[in-house]
Amino acid sequence: METLKGKTVSFIGLGLMGGALAMGIRKQGPDKICAFDINEEVLEDALRKEVIDWGVSEPEGIRQILGVSDLVVICLYPQLALDFILEYMEDFKENAVITDITGVKKLLVDQLRGVLREDLDLILGHPMAGSEKEGFGNADDAIFKDRNYILVPQPENKPENLAFIKEIIRNLGFVNIVETTAEVHDQKIAFTSQLCHVIASALVDSEEDLHITDYEGGSFGDLTRIAMINAGMWTELFICNKEALVDQIEKFEKSMDTMKKMIQAEDSDGLTEILSNVRKKRITMEVDRQNKTSARTQKA
């Protein structure tokens, strides 16, 4: 892996995802890995595990690592990521490549349009991987294997830098790289990610029996694992993408209401038809995913 040879990479935020990405990029042989995190114990742990070479927790340290970094990976909540770029705009190394992992994109595109330093190349990205666990202590780059990665290229992105980021992504274990617009990203993620977390959270919220798992056979656990949620992060994601998310919630409510009425009316034929169609749809979705994964794995 020669992509990162001689390069310095910095991570802004060393939580679960920042830590996992740093672990994966360490295997790609960069010259140096730096990190900023407000938690000095996290930095000490990352240094001890040789995930990073240099850790900082103060603004002056941020300026120092940005000044030497060829690639900066921002692993912060959306508003914090935006604020970070704006605050430290003049501190990035000349011609640095910047990428992010935030779960909404239109906010960044709208707020940074026309204000980003001309020599910097911001390539927006979203790794579709994660865990219900939190923090650097639970970071593991194995979560990226055979997952999707979404990129939101902008007209000003340099082709060579986009190719550079894609090569890093593939070397991390991702097999399907999707390129789309900020608007489409936020619409799709409202369904595949945010709505799922809303449903899981609402399901758990609807039950008061804390011993209900005595009666489950796996379905409840599978459906609600993601309800062990990072409340602050997901609150921000939900609100940042409220229009697209509310639209998806309303579609879900409509589907739920249809099935509720069929159950109340004992409409066996209607319910059987819906469930049969749902099964076919889900199988088609899964076959499509497997085919894409297989094709890209063989190509690699």
UniProtKB/TrEMBL annotation:
Residues 7-293 form the Prephenate/arogenate dehydrogenase domain. Pathway: Amino-acid biosynthesis. Keywords: Oxidoreductase. The keyword Oxidoreductase applies. The keyword Oxidoreductase applies. GO terms for molecular function: NAD+ binding; prephenate dehydrogenase (NAD+) activity; prephenate dehydrogenase (NADP+) activity. It holds the Pfam family PDH_N. GO terms for biological process: tyrosine biosynthetic process. InterPro entries: 6-PGluconate_DH-like_C_sf (IPR008927), NAD(P)-bd_dom_sf (IPR036291), PDH_C (IPR046825), PDH_N (IPR046826), Preph/Arog_dehydrog (IPR050812), Prephen_DH (IPR003099). SUPFAM superfamilies: 6-phosphogluconate dehydrogenase C-terminal domain-like, NAD(P)-binding Rossmann-fold domains. Transmembrane segments: none annotated. Gene3D superfamilies: 6-phosphogluconate dehydrogenase C-terminal like domain, NAD(P)-binding Rossmann-like Domain. Belongs to the prephenate/arogenate dehydrogenase family. This is Prephenate dehydrogenase. It comes from Eubacterium callanderi.
